[in-house]
């Protein structure tokens, strides 16, 4: 019969820099231990020509999960007043005895995430100010290379209003009144802009005035 030769390669660390697995040379099978997520390739040759290759993606299931509220653009969110602090710490689960590694990132809307130096713990404390980012992201990696991420959207309240979110005015026919909001910014010398809208019952939406 035809003579086939087998070579096995480990592509885990860098797919462009494959490492030949010497103890599996010229064997049609390779036995490995689930000590890390791996990418393995088998190359079959005949008379020096490659006739078949196959890649194997080996994933170690450690049950790594991060609890999420599944909002449109984040897993969780928080609203803070200026100078208010909070601790970001999602609920992470993994199989018993599996080590976890943490790294926090941040970004503003329309930007890319940047690594936060020294933020490598399961929790991260933020204090609301003008430099507070719009999003904070935690990447959790377990000992086997599995990764999960969690994103929290942060909204800093820089405006103060007198009264609640809604107000009710009762008028007699053909009479009028002045609607006014009392707002101020907690940011020194900030200029406020105003835009009024009127609710359209037919379209069930707001029309700008």
Task: Provide the descriptors you would attach to this structure in a database record.
elongated; 5-stranded mixed sheet; mainly beta; 209 residues
As residue ranges, the low-confidence spans are none
Total number of beta strands: 17
Radius of gyration, Cα only, in angstroms? 29 Å
Proportion in β-strands:
35-45%
Distance, first to last CA = 86 Å
Major β-sheet profile: 5 strands, mixed
Estimate percent helicity. under 10%
Shape: elongated
Q: Spell out the helices and strands N to C.
A: EEEEEEEEEEEEEEEEE
Short description:
This protein has 209 residues and is mainly β. 0% of the residues lie in helices and 42% in strands. The protein is elongated.
What this model shows, in words?
By secondary structure, the chain is mainly beta. Helices cover 0% and strands 42% of the residues. It contains no helices and 17 strands. It has strands at residues 5-10, 19-20, 38-46, 49-58, 65-66, 76-81, 85-88, 92-93, 100-107, 114-115, 124-127, 135-142, 147-157, 159-161, 183-185, 197-200, 205-208. The strands form six sheets. The chain has a five-stranded mixed sheet with strand order 6-13-12-9-10, with no helix packed on it. Strands 2-1-3-4 form a four-stranded antiparallel sheet, with no helix packed on it. Strands 5-8 form a two-stranded antiparallel sheet. The chain is elongated, with a radius of gyration of 29 Å.
């Amino acid at each position: 019969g035809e003579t086939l030769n087998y070579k096995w390669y480990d592509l885990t660390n860098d797919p462009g820099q494959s490492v030949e697995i010497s103890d599996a040379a010229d064997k049609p099978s390779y036995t490995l231990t689930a000590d890390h997520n791996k990418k393995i390739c088998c190359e079959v040759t005949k008379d020096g020509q490659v006739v078949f290759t196959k890649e194997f993606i080996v994933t170690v299931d450690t049950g790594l999960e991060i609890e999420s509220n599944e909002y449109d653009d984040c897993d969780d969110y928080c609203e803070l007043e200026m100078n208010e602090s909070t601790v970001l710490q999602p609920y992470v689960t993994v199989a018993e005895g599996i080590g976890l590694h943490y790294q926090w990132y941040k970004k503003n809307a329309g930007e890319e995430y940047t690594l936060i130096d020294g933020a490598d713990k399961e929790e991260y404390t933020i204090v609301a100010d003008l430099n507070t980012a719009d999003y904070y992201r935690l990447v959790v990696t377990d000992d086997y290379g599995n990764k999960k991420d969690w994103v929290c959207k942060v909204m800093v309240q820089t405006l103060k209003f007198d009264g609640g979110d809604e107000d009710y005015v009762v008028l007699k026919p053909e009479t009028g009144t002045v609607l006014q909001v009392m707002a101020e910014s907690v940011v020194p010398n900030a200029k406020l802009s105003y835009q009024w809208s009127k609710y359209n019952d037919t379209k069930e939406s707001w029309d700008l005035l």
